[in-house]
Design a protein that fits this description.
The protein is α/β, with parallel strands linked by helices. The protein folds into 2 domains: about 190 residues, Alanine racemase (TIM Barrel), CATH 3.20.20.10; about 110 residues, Beta Barrel (Lyase, Ornithine Decarboxylase, Chain A, domain 1). About 25% of the residues lie in helices and about 20% in strands. It contains 10 helices and 14 strands. The chain has a 6-stranded parallel sheet. The longest helix has 15 residues. It binds pyridoxal-5'-phosphate (PLP). The site of pyridoxal-5'-phosphate has 11 residues, from helix 8.
Length: about 325
Amino acid sequence: MKADGYGLGAAKVASALSGAGCRHFFVATIDEGIALRKSLPGDAVIVVFDGLMAADTAAEFDAHSLTPVLNSPGEIKSWSHHATNGGNRSAFLALDTGMNRLGLSPAEVEVIAEKPEFLDGIEIACVMSHLACADEATHPQNSQQRQLFDALRAKLPAAEASFANSAGIFLGPEYHYDLARPGAALYGVSRGCGAPEPMQQVIGLKAKILQIRIVDTESTVGYGATRSVPANSRLATVAAGYADGYLPSLSNRGFGFAAGVKVPVAGRLSMDLTVFDISNVPPNAIAPGDHIDLICDRQTVDDVADAARTVGYEILTSIGSRFTKHYTGTGT
Ligand SMILES: *Cc1c(COP(=O)(O)O)cnc(C)c1O
C-alpha cells in the first residue's frame, strides 16, 4: 500500500483487498500507516517497512496499532526497551540478504544470535528479507539470497517468514514462505517475471481531447520543434502533460489509442498538454471532448513503461492528482 497504493489510492485499494480476505498490509512510512489504519478493520496488521526511523516513535506505533519492521540493532534495542516497559511486543525483523538497503547484516544477526537478550520482550511476528533480482528469473542472486535467508533465520528464534515481492512469487513455491508481499502484481504490472504472467490490466488512463486541428502546410509540433508533420495531418491536443505524470520521456515515443486506433505522441510533451497525431483515425470517429486512452487493454502499464524507458512502478506512482479516479470494483 506504500506510495498511496502505488498512486492508485491506498484507502480504496486496501478496503477492496480487506474485503477479499487480505489481513496483512505493508506501507513505507509511519504516516502512511496512520492514514491507512482508518480504512481497515482493527484486526488487520499494518507493517511499516521504514521501522522506528531512528526516532522515538514507538509510542506512536502503539497508538495507531502499527507493527514496525526492525531494521537495525538500534531499532531492536528501542523496541525491546519499549516492549519490556509495557508497550506492544510484536514486530517484524528485516534481514539484509543482498540489497544493502535496509535490515540486519549477516554480522549483526551473528551478534544477536550470540546475545539473545537483545530481543528481550520482543515477539518476532515474522522475519523478512527482500530480493534484489527477482525480475530476472535465472539470476543466480535469487537462490543465493534465499539460502542466506534460511541460514540467518536458523540462528534466530523460530518465527514465520516473508520473502517474496511480486516477481519473487513467480520464482516458485520455495520463495513463498508464510507471507508474500505483492505490490506491482496487484495493479497488473507484470514485467519480466520470466514465467507465464497471469496478471490482468486493472487500470485504465484516459485524457480528454481539447482540440483537433488540421495542419495547413508541413510544419512542426510543440516545444523545440522536434517533430515535423506533413500538410493535412490531423492532430489532437489532450489535457494531460508531464505535470500529470505522463512522463516527458514519452515525447515522440509514446502512443495512445483514439477510437481504437494506435496514435503516436507528436513532439515534446508540455506541462499540461500532449499532442497526438491522429491522421490514421477515421475523421468522424472522434471529436473534442472524447478521450484518448493512454493505458488500456491494448496498451498495458508495462508497454507505457517500455516506451518511457522506465518501469511500470514509476508510471503508476507518477499519475497526477488532476486525473479523476473512478473505482469500478464492487463495494468501493
Ligand atoms: C515495495 C516492496 C514490496 C512490493 O514489491 P513489488 O515488486 O511491487 O511486488 C515488497 N517488499 C518490500 C520490502 C518492498 O519495499
